[in-house]
Design a protein that fits this description.
- This protein has about 425 residues and is α/β, with parallel strands linked by helices.
- The chain has helices spanning about 1-15, 40-60, 70-75, 75-80, 150, 160-175, 195-200, 220-230, 245-250, 260-270, 290-305, 330-355, and strands at about 30-35, 65-70, 85-90, 110, 130-135, 135, 155, 175-180, 210-215, 235-240, 275-285, 310-315, 360-370, 370-380, 385-390, 400-410, 415-420.
- The protein folds into 3 domains: about 1-110, Methylthiotransferase, N-terminal domain (Rossmann fold, 3-Layer(aba) Sandwich); about 115-355, Alpha-Beta Horseshoe (pyruvate-formate lyase- activating enzyme), CATH 3.80.30; about 360-420, Beta Barrel (OB fold (Dihydrolipoamide Acetyltransferase, E2P)), CATH 2.40.50.
- Helix 11 (about 290-305) packs parallel to helix 12.
- The two termini are about 40 Å apart.
- The protein binds 5'-deoxyadenosine and iron/sulfur cluster (SF4).
- 5'-deoxyadenosine binds near residues 145, 146, 241 and 312.
Length: about 425
């Protein structure tokens, strides 16, 4: 979501005549698009910002803007803490970037934006094959650890016609894959439901693959499972954050499902969509997580065998419910639980990858393999990265091509394959 916001910021600035540079020394304006989901992201931002202090002294005309969730949360405080910051723009007010040049810009734009779902913004995309598309903004769920509902506001769904028009335009430009974005796409609600929207996207000529993130397990409907099963372009992959294997901890997290309910959804997905890749998010060391609760998460990892997970240690976010909970766990304990989780999952991921050895996979080519320019890199429908060896007999392969590849080697985080002669 944040990366796509950056593409919009770049799109607006380009339409205003700005030219992008990688080098702050060359810039007239530097924008930080910040994330505050965990403390580490916040620390990284403040140290990057610190580096610009000398530059601003030498070049007083340089303007510095802070956008994103830290901007939203801290508002004026950033201007006080870091006086050489010129503008603060929250994630609901990206459109205001257009006005930075104007003398009457108020320095701070952090109001709730009730028109965000109706606002079309230019996008400067970094990729030529795969594109992100917002279908909704904000979140109503208030998971007790999470800052997002406070920074991105309440859920608002974009009208389906504007989503479909954007995707048609992308298809026309040569994009082959779209990822529909929302904090909880399953609660998309405009003139269409989410499965109905998928059905319409599936009809768009030129688009070969449809993905979506993120699905909240409590809202994963049978209709959506059927859409994944029946719609040709919807990839057989779902990111379904579990967070914890303990129903007691899930309840403290305000996730609104039990572990058994989660398992039932996984069963329904696997029964209806054989071979579906399931990935997840896990938080280690949530307040009050006992060794027993933690053991339930480890057990869940073995039982479910996710294709991959993103695992984090719990990070206290001021203003959230969990930050005020008793039973906060020591950093060293959180880290040791996290490391164990990562190690356990690494083995499971490797095993899952091994099971694809010798299979034929449909690969969408992204571009040359960064590690070996003689190869190409792409992804399976299950979203696994494959490094593809080219075959002299085969026609040249270019980004956006969809080809069949025989998997010949499975590594921990990627696969290797050979093009199958046509
Ligand atoms: N601490 C640790 N992880 C968090 N996440 C969200 N908030 C926190 C937090 N305070 C994780 C969740 C979520 C993912 C995007 O980030 O696992 O699914
Ligand atoms: Fe945060 Fe929960 Fe909303 Fe996801 S669903 S953004 S974890 S509050």
């Amino acid at each position: 979501m944040n990366v796509h916001d950056s593409e919009k910021i770049a799109g607006i600035l380009k339409s205003e005549g700005y030219i992008e540079t990688d080098c702050p020394q060359d810039a007239d304006l530097v924008i930080f698009n910040t994330c505050s989901i965990r403390q580490k992201a916040e620390q990284k931002f403040f140290s990057e910002l610190g580096r610009l202090k000398m530059l601003k002294k030498r070049k007083p005309g340089l303007r510095i803007a802070v956008a994103g969730c830290i901007a939203q949360q801290q508002g004026k405080k950033i201007l006080k803490r870091v006086p050489y910051v010129d503008y603060v723009i929250g994630p609901q007010n990206i459109h205001m970037v257009r006005d930075l040049n104007k003398a009457n810009f108020a320095k701070i734009a952090v109001e709730d934006n009730l028109l965000i779902a109706d606002t079309e913004l230019p996008v400067e995309r970094k990729d030529q094959v795969r594109a992100w598309i917002n279908i909704m903004y904000g979140c109503n769920n208030f998971c007790s650890y999470c800052i997002v509902p406070f920074t991105r506001g309440r859920e608002q769904s974009r009208p389906s016609h504007s989503i479909l028009n954007e995707i048609k335009e992308l298809a026309h430009k040569g994009y082959r894959e779209v990822t529909l974005l929302g904090q909880n796409v399953n609660s998309y609600a405009s003139d269409k439901s989410f499965p109905e929207l998928l059905k319409e996207v599936d009809k768009i000529e030129g688009i070969r693959r449809i993905r979506f993130v993120t699905s909240h397990p409590k809202d994963l409907s049978d209709e959506l499972i059927i859409a994944i099963r029946d719609l040709e372009k919807v990839c057989e992959h779902i990111h379904l954050p579990l967070q914890s294997g303990s129903t007691r901890v899930l309840s403290l997290m305000n996730r609104k499902y039990t572990f058994d309910e989660y398992l039932k959804r996984v069963d329904a997905l696997r029964r209806n969509v054989p071979g579906i890749a399931i990935t997840s998010d896990i938080i280690a060391g949530f307040p009050e997580e006992s060794v027993y609760d933690y053991g339930l998460t480890v057990k869940a990892l073995h039982e479910i065998e996710f294709d991959g997970i993103f695992a984090f240690h719990y990070s206290k976010r001021e203003g959230t419910k969990a930050a005020a909970m008793r039973g906060q766990i020591a950093d060293s304990e959180k880290l040791s639980r996290l490391n164990e989780i990562i190690e356990i999952q690494n083995e499971i991921t490797e095993g899952k990858n091994q099971s694809l050895n010798n299979s034929v996979q449909e690969i969408l080519i992204d571009g040359p393999d960064e590690k070996n320019p003689l190869k190409m890199s792409g992804r399976t429908r299950g979203n696994k990265i494959v490094s593809v060896t080219l075959n002299a007999m085969h026609q040249p392969i270019k980004p956006g091509d969809v080809i069949n590849v025989l998997i010949i080697k499975a590594n921990r985080h990627s696969l290797e394959g050979e093009v199958i002669p046509e």
